[in-house]
Amino acid sequence: MTAQPLDGKATAAAIKTELTTRVAALREHGVIPGLATVLVGSDPASQNYVRMKHRDCEQVGIQSIRVELPADATAEQLRDAIEGLNADPACTGYIVQLPIPRHLDENWALSLIDPDKDADGLHPINLGRLVLNEPATLPCTPRGIVELLRRHDVPIKGAEVVVVGRGITVGRPLGLILTRRSENATVTLCHTGTRDLASHTRTADIVVAAAGVPHMITADMIREGAALVDVGVSRVDGVTTGDLAPDVWEKAGWVTPNPGGVGPMTRAMLLSNVVDRAEALHGR
Ligand SMILES: Nc1nc(=O)c2c([nH]1)NC[C@@H]1CN(c3ccc(C(=O)N[C@@H](CCC(=O)O)C(=O)O)cc3)C=[N+]21
């Protein structure tokens, strides 16, 4: 028996159709949602992600604004770009594409974003709201993972979830989201300091692999019938390689394809955050 795919591509397409309706309603009220991206430097992968995000916007009727800065941009230039978007009424939500060049401080840049326009949910105010159980814009990848599980009827309430990776964009916020009363999962957050990873993953109902280590989760490390979510995007000999080894498909109950799983869901949730923000900014 082979696992059922958690089809991110199809699910993202369905979400985009739903968003198209909400965007049309906003436009009827004279509100045009606008997503801006700030890209610093010319990393080809980042350029590709940004390109895909703008294409998504076009598909659902969201206006998009592209801000590009050179790799050697100064902190002042980046601050000016961010403050420009905070003040721009055409921009209802935006992201600073990560990573940014090393000479610039990521947390500093994120903290300059107007929390009401923070489409990534990575501003300290929004992460703080998440910790405090207050309504917040949530980070796109964790939100996409929860939505993907939900729409495939993978049970979350009461589930034992192992998240591998404690990064700020995925692992850490995902743990917070899944342990809210509304999700009620039990989460173990594993990381590079975890002594015996397999002892945790082997008993989990759901494993989210967000470590960025190619093929680190193998079939012998999982429970039969478990749901597996692959967040990994490593390049191995020019091929995008996830954190799940291919042999897991024969043992798991559900697996996210990669590509075609978490990536498209992340982008769909970015659009969803922008539409949420546009509705909120206009009191709807
Ligand atoms: N501020 C910020 N917000 C982000 O959300 C953000 C970021 N910075 N920096 C980089 C990561 C990475 N990321 C991806 C989103 C979609 C795909 C995606 O859709 N991938 C396709 C394949 C794309 C391809 O053809 O290469 C898939 O998985 O099917 C991948 C990666 C968002 N990120």
From TrEMBL:
It comes from the Bacteria. One of its GO terms (cellular component) is cytosol. It catalyses: (6R)-5,10-methylene-5,6,7,8-tetrahydrofolate + NADP(+) = (6R)-5,10-methenyltetrahydrofolate + NADPH; (6R)-5,10-methenyltetrahydrofolate + H2O = (6R)-10-formyltetrahydrofolate + H(+). InterPro entries: Aminoacid_DH-like_N_sf (IPR046346), NAD(P)-bd_dom_sf (IPR036291), THF_DH/CycHdrlase (IPR000672), THF_DH/CycHdrlase_cat_dom (IPR020630), THF_DH/CycHdrlase_NAD-bd_dom (IPR020631). GO terms for molecular function: methenyltetrahydrofolate cyclohydrolase activity; methylenetetrahydrofolate dehydrogenase (NADP+) activity. Residues 139-279 form the Tetrahydrofolate dehydrogenase/cyclohydrolase NAD(P)-binding domain. GO terms for biological process: L-histidine biosynthetic process; methionine biosynthetic process; purine nucleotide biosynthetic process; tetrahydrofolate interconversion. Keywords: Amino-acid biosynthesis, Histidine biosynthesis, Hydrolase, Methionine biosynthesis, Multifunctional enzyme, NADP, One-carbon metabolism, Oxidoreductase, Purine biosynthesis. NADP(+) binds at G165, R166, G167, V233. Its EC number is 1.5.1.5, 3.5.4.9. Residues 6-120 form the Tetrahydrofolate dehydrogenase/cyclohydrolase catalytic domain. Pfam families: THF_DHG_CYH (PF00763), THF_DHG_CYH_C (PF02882). Pathway: One-carbon metabolism; tetrahydrofolate interconversion. HAMAP family: THF_DHG_CYH. Catalyzes the oxidation of 5,10-methylenetetrahydrofolate to 5,10-methenyltetrahydrofolate and then the hydrolysis of 5,10-methenyltetrahydrofolate to 10-formyltetrahydrofolate. Belongs to the tetrahydrofolate dehydrogenase/cyclohydrolase family. Homodimer. This is Bifunctional protein FolD. It comes from Tessaracoccus aquimaris. The lineage of its organism: Bacteria, Bacillati, Actinomycetota, Actinomycetes, Propionibacteriales.
